[in-house]
Amino acid sequence: MIDDIISLTSSTLIYMVPLVLAGVGEIITERSGVVNIGLEGIFVLSSFTATIVTFATGNPYLGLFSGTIVGLLAGVLHGIVSVYLRGNQIIAGVGFNTLAYGISIMGLVTIWKQHGASPSVSKIPMISLKIREGLTFTISPLSIAAILIAIGTWYWLFKTTSGLKLRACGEDPKSAEAMGVNVFRTRFYATVIGSALTGLGGAYLTVGWIGQFTRHISAGRGFIALANVAFSNWNPLMAIVGGMIFGFFDVLSIYLPIKIQLIYPEVKITTLAYLFKTIPYIGTLAVVSLIIGRARVPRALGKPYIKE
Amino acid sequence: MGSVQFLMKLRERIRARYEEYLVIVIETLASAIIGFSIGALVLYILGFNPAKIYLILFSKGLSNPDYLLSKSTPIMLTGLAFAIPMLAGVFNIGGEGQLYIGALISLIVVTSTHNSALGILAGMVAGAALGTFKAVLKVYRGVNEVIAAIMLNWVMYFLTLYLLTEKLYNPQIPHESIPVPEDARLGKIPTPIGDIRLIFFIAVIASLVIYYILYYTNIGYMLRVAGLSPKTAKYAGFNPNLAIIYSMALGGAMAGLGGSLLLIGYVYSIDTTMSTLYGLGFMGIGVALLGRNNPIGIIFSAIFFSMLIIGGEMIELLAGAPPELADALTGVIVIALALPYTYRMLISYMRIRRMMKK
């Protein structure tokens, strides 16, 4: 029993990292008034880049860095499109998701001649705490980093002047402009920072956790991170909680079939596992539809700012 | 005096319209050009000759009319599945899941009843039900339709995989589903350009029906008003929430129809990796946007995207380049289509320069 709790907790802390990082990043972006639904695409593209870089250099930290840079560049693209060119933010995000998937799979097929998955690459070592013989508590250093980033972001957004200015751009850009805030620049940087954090989360998917790039590596995680933003009510501290809840659903989808197989060896689990894979999505939808009613959206969210 | 004024007005109107059309043409061309340029760049980086690849893409993509039009059928319908809710102000990116459930339910119904019409109807109802569910979540629980759509897409993906591998697999060919019975399949009809699959004509008729509903009926009017301004809709006595539900139901029915036509009139069975279905819903978003959410435009835009898909398959066969080029191109085209303001700025910039020259 205690073993199960320990292993479920440590898995949850490992699984939650991309959801927390992308969730916090998207909170920064949305608090400034820009929606980026291209999180899924950033996950795919940055995890792919991290895999290539780690494959070539053997250094997973370099992979993590390169993935963050890819996220940052995606943010520059989305920032230009949605802030300066006043594009439709949802459509641009949908387009980016398709583009990122296309480029990454093209790269996968061209570089490794594989349609499903890349070869394994080296990973960032996990931190293990030995509790007793045969029982260790394992988490990634990125789990701690993600929580610290979320706390730091909360402090920045709610306790500092620059955070207040950023939120003003998402609530009432005209007043922010009157206050002397450069709305365009603030929104642009908020988009870039948010996407860079998402890129970090995407790179973690391969070099921090799974160890290889696969066709469905993200599998809707970018959108679960979006659900996390709404769940958290645009508060980075709550995004940690949301990341744990949504991450836990993901853990269950892997853990339950294994457990069932152990208890009932006669059950044919391979096909049944497909049904368990629906848990994170059904769980996310259930949580979102039960809780979201009280959420308060930043008032100017998704509306391009037009200077008079 | 009056007639001169009238002529002046008419000229003004044509001029105003002319600008609208110019924006449409520039927007469409620019996004295609940007798309193909970035595609060329990606190909070049990956070590292919872009000119050679594009030559294959266009020549092979258009070489077989039946194949071209058959492939355009499902994406035409998932295009409508995006466009109808879009006109009512809702983003339906769940065409993917609606297409899966349409194909799946059709397969179940058609194998048990041997009646293609019943199978198609069941597929449409299934798609519509899924669309309505999302609309209800949005209207009554405030759930963002984009999040709901993606979650349900993945639920449908794994549910379909489960049923295909566990219940509906073909005992003779285990990696395929049981086939649609011979007597329930839709065939081809002869035309001047060769035999064309019936499903293409059904999809075109569906597009025309949707056009009629959107522009010549009360429901269509209500949808479009609600999409342009929910407040106006309220003043006019329409319920904007009802518009959301109707549009999602109608859109879902179209994606479901796409799934069931693909199954009953073209592939006849689904492989257990679902590669026959995967991505067709997402492709519909690009189809709808390039067709400017107009059902008639969508017919042509679906054929264009069908050429991209077929070209993608051909470049894999002939040049060893990955077929996902079609996805990359679609993505760039969609991003470029998100920028109407930019093209308007470009036009006014050109006009100012012309005036300066004078």
Overview of the molecule:
The complex is a heterodimer of chains A (308) and B (358). Helices cover 72% and strands 4% of the residues of chain A. Chain A has 308 residues and is mainly α. Chain A has a two-stranded antiparallel sheet with strand order 1-2. In chain A, helix 2 (39-57) runs antiparallel to helix 3 (60-84), helix 9 runs parallel beside helix 12 (279-291) and helix 10 packs antiparallel against helix 11. The N and C termini of chain A lie far apart (64 Å). Chain B is mostly helical. Chain B has helices spanning 2-45, 50-61, 65-87, 95-113, 116-141, 145-166, 198-216, 218-228, 230-235, 240-267, 280-290, 295-319, 325-337, 340-357, and strands spanning 188-191, 194-197. In chain B, strand 1 (188-191) and strand 2 form a beta hairpin. The two termini of chain B are 30 Å apart. At the A-B interface, helix 4, helix 9, helix 11 and helix 12 of A face helix 6, helix 11, helix 13 and helix 14 of B.
In short:
The complex is a heterodimer of chains A (308) and B (358). Chain A is mainly alpha-helical.
List keywords for this structure.
heterodimer, A: 308 residues, mainly alpha, B: 358 residues, 77% helix, globular
Any low-confidence stretches of chain B, pLDDT <50, length ≥5?
A: none
Q: What does the oligomeric state look like here?
A: heterodimer
The sequence of SSEs of chain B as H and E is HHHHHHEEHHHHHHHH
Terminal Cα span of chain B: 30 Å
- Coarse morphology of chain B: globular
Number of strands of chain A: 2
Q: Which structural class fits the helix and strand makeup of chain A? A: mainly alpha
Q: Going across the major beta sheet of chain A, what is the strand order?
A: 1-2
Classify the helix fraction of chain A into a percent range. Answer: over 70%
State mean pLDDT of chain B (0 to 100 scale): 86
Spatial separation of the terminal alpha carbons of chain A: 64 Å
Which chains make the largest contact?
A-B, 52 and 50 residues
Q: Total number of helical segments of chain B? A: 14
Decide which structural class fits the backbone of chain B: mainly alpha
Give the radius of gyration of chain B: 22 Å
Order of strands in the sheet with most strands of chain B: 1-2
Low-confidence stretches of chain A: none
